[in-house]
Fold this sequence. Notes:
Blueprint: H1 2-9, E1 22-25, E2 31-36, E3 42-47, E4 52-56, E5 65-67, E6 74-79, E7 85-90, E8 95-99, E9 105-109, E10 116-121, E11 127-132, E12 136-141, E13 146-152, E14 158-164, E15 169-174, E16 178-183, E17 189-195, E18 200-206, E19 211-216, E20 221-225, E21 231-234, E22 242-247, E23 253-258, E24 262-267, E25 273-278, E26 285-290, E27 295-300, E28 304-309, H2 335-343, H3 380-383, H4 391-400, H5 402-405, H6 419-434, H7 436-440
Antiparallel strand pairs: 1-28, 2-3, 3-4, 4-5, 6-7, 7-8, 8-9, 10-11, 11-12, 12-13, 14-15, 15-16, 16-17, 18-19, 19-20, 20-21, 22-23, 23-24, 24-25, 26-27, 27-28
Helix pairs in contact: 2-6, 4-6
Heme C (HEC) binds at residues 343-344, 346-348, 358-360, 362, 365, 368, 370-371, 373, 378-379, 381-382, 389, 394, 398, 409-412.
Amino acid sequence: MRVLALVLSLTAIPAMADEGYMRLEGHGGPIKGVAVSPDGRHALTASFDNSVGLWSLSEAGADPLWLEGHEAAANSVLFLPDGKRALSAGDDFDAILWDTASGDMVARLEGHEGKILDLATTPDGKTGASAGWDGAVGLWNLETRAPIAMLEGHRAAVQAVRFADAGTRLYSAGSDGTVRVWNTASGDLIRVEAKHGFGINRLVVNEAAGWVAYGALDGGVRILDRESGEEIADITSGRQPVLALTLSPDGALIGVGDGEGHIHIVSTTNWKTVRDFRATPRGPVWALAFDRSNRVVAGTIQNYADIWPIATATAIDESDVALRSFQRDPATMTNGERQFMRKCSICHTLTEDGGRRAGPTLLNVFGRKAGTLSGYIYSDALSGMDIVWNSETLDKLFDLGPDHYTPGSKMPMQRIVRDEDRADLIAYLKNAGADPQETLK
Ligand code: HEC
């Protein structure tokens, strides 16, 4: 177990720790969304750990302001144009409007019946849009904080939304492989702008240049003329799926992040590659945003966001980067530890401080009454339950699944079907809890 503690504490800086390179560290889970403020001085990160971080880009190493309110993974973040408000959205089906000075929640926008994957705002900051897994595009009045409409038409999850033409038009794209254009005022569908044989994950609109670009599940990245719908360029790299797509503030660069961990930066004047590098040794690049200093902020499977100077970004030295805990060689673990690493460690630690994960630390969970660890914000459902955690109740939790045993709790649906796996996991947790020294040895 000493090895484990060591591996978890190692966070290597890329070999090219260059001028301008920065790392935003503090989240307890992978980063699903990133955004840079209009003045370029702040960044937002949305994490699997349920929280949103608001970071100063001028103070390296400073702690972020934590925006707490999502009850599941946060997926998407953006600054409103005046920089005073931010919007985030997540797996809890909600979007939240925040005050960026205080970090306070201003309003919770409820209405979707599925996760929200993407957000957009009009240039005046008065209207917001959300992309829902329920197949709907949400339109929100950000002044009254009331829903305006749920636009139905996509035949599957909506993955991306972007406004155009001073907010009078809205583009949406989704798993049904279509890009649609809506009239924002009437809510009417104007046309299906594009059809792709695979689901579309990301969308950007370059109004000045008159094109829209999308990135898809099969790795396809295509640029289409907004008027004619004709293809202007195809910058497909072959890596799939495309998970992130972003345009630089001046429109000169487009950044593509993919499921294989690469960042591909392309010039929008000649469609040639400017940079193409591996940004994480394993797993996907989920989110990208250019800042105002020729850098690109990247959210990946790692618990931190990297900010790469575009001019010098090169592939990270893979031998130098610690693997995430659940990527360790499973052959070196007992079955109980393996169960924990694979199924729990992304949301729970076995350390005193809980490591800023979505769930509370499971150190000393044996004998704990459910929902009572101080310092962790539980759902009302779990804190109201009369359960004490022990071998029997933990076994029930994963035999029946949290949705049945602790209905209404924030813990996602999951079951561990094999009796033996549950028993090994419980023995592992008990051992870790019974003797804290044991976990550090
Ligand atoms: C995707 C995130 C996620 C995963 C994966 C996850 N949990 Fe949880 N877990 C949570 C959250 C969030 C809570 C708090 C629930 C609430 O407040 O309703 C929680 C609560 C718990 C609790 C109650 C703790 C207490 O203090 O009352 C136990 C026990 C627990 N989890 C065990 C596990 C185990 C064991 C695994 C792996 C098999 C696991 N969890 C996987 C997110 C997760």
